């Protein structure tokens, strides 16, 4: 059994806090010409591992996910003052959730914070206008301020974290 250092636990907790306290993530996909496509989407995280969002299947980023499932995600609070920001960077593999999986995942895929709609499996089935997508995280980093009391390096940096570790 491995133990996590108290320093690493601080970074893991930072990742959990940022994910828990924010409603939007920036989804980074890759266009066919190799250019990045960035899209803000309302999300729900399940187990700090699966990041769900609802989108039109004809949305630009939905087409990109269908063609190239490897994505990047950034979750951050854009209202924080300069020098106080925290962020989580996630590498993930994304996909549209198939209709047969909807009954199993729909409860964890939606929260009602911020006035969000709680969709049902029926809302997203068959000829529904919106589809459910999920990005399964493969790695995480957190934005650490240069003046962070224990992890600061004198400059802002990305440092490895894992919010799933409790």
Report on this model:
The chain has about 170 residues and is α+β, with helices and mostly antiparallel strands. The chain contains three helices and eight strands, in the order H-E-E-E-E-H-E-E-H-E-E. The longest helix has 16 residues. The mean pLDDT is about 90.
Characteristics:
166 residues; alpha+beta; Pnp Oxidase, Chain A; eight-stranded antiparallel β-sheet; globular
Q: From the coordinates shown, what is the CATH architecture?
A: Roll
Which structural class do the helices and strands define? alpha+beta
Between the first and last Cα atoms, what is the distance in angstroms?
13 Å
Examine the coordinates and then state which fold CATH places here, giving the name of the CATH topology: Pnp Oxidase, Chain A
Major sheet: 8 strands, antiparallel
- How many structural domains can be distinguished in the coordinates? 1
Q: Please, how many helices?
A: 3
CATH class: Mainly Beta
Spans of at least 5 consecutive residues with low confidence: none
Order of helices and strands: HEEEEHEEHEE
The radius of gyration is: 17 Å
CATH superfamily: Electron Transport, Fmn-binding Protein, Chain A
Beta strands, count: 8
Could you tell me the strand content as a percent range? 25-35%
- Average pLDDT number: 90
Q: Which geometry do the CA atoms define? A: globular
Helicity level, as a percent range? Answer: 10-25%
